[in-house]
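Tip: read the tokens left to right.
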């Protein structure tokens, strides 16, 4: 069943531009891994500073909203509230990761890590397009996370702004 979850999560994260590192790879622990997230390209100096400021403010607001949604969702995982985490994910995630597979496999992925010791966002990137996804608002956040049994782990969470304006998790992976 864990293989089913890994495959289903891979589909969800593939939509967010992630790649799967299969559990059979003996050189790494079973996990989903995403490619490095690059910061949004910096624009050239604007001719009129007032014209550039709203775009930067808007992007920053979206990055902050996506990051906040990602943190809230990760807190559900930290509390072992697997069902609520699944329910609060995007429709795409829920479609590609059936609840039964999620409930069976996510404890096997998270419980060996032990309790959370700390988590800091290290990269946040806002994009309006992801491979295989329609145009929209997407924020990918890479967190440097420390757990009791895994002190050096990166968690990658991609959120998408749904039609109702709420940011929801589209993909999750670790490396």
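Filled-in amino acids:
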């Amino acid at each position: 069943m864990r293989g089913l979850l890994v495959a289903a999560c891979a589909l969800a994260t593939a939509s967010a531009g992630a790649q799967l590192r299969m559990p059979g790879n003996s050189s790494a622990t079973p996990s989903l891994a995403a490619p490095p997230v690059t910061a949004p390209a910096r624009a050239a100096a604007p001719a009129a500073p007032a014209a550039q400021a709203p775009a930067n403010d808007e992007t920053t607001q979206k990055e902050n909203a996506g990051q906040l949604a990602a943190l809230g969702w990760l807190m559900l995982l930290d509390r072992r509230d697997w069902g609520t985490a699944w329910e609060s994910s995007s429709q795409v995630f829920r479609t590609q990761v059936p609840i039964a597979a999620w409930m069976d496999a996510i404890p096997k992925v998270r419980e060996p890590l032990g309790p959370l010791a700390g988590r800091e966002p290290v990269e946040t990137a806002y994009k309006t397009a992801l491979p295989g996804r329609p145009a929209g608002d997407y924020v990918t956040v890479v967190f440097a996370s420390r757990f009791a049994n895994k002190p050096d782990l990166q968690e990658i969470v991609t959120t998408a702004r749904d039609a109702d304006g709420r940011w929801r998790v589209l993909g999750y992976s670790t490396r």
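The domain at 2-39+53-174 is CATH 3.10.450.100 (Nuclear Transport Factor 2; Chain: A,). The CA atoms of residues 39 and 99 lie 33 Å apart.
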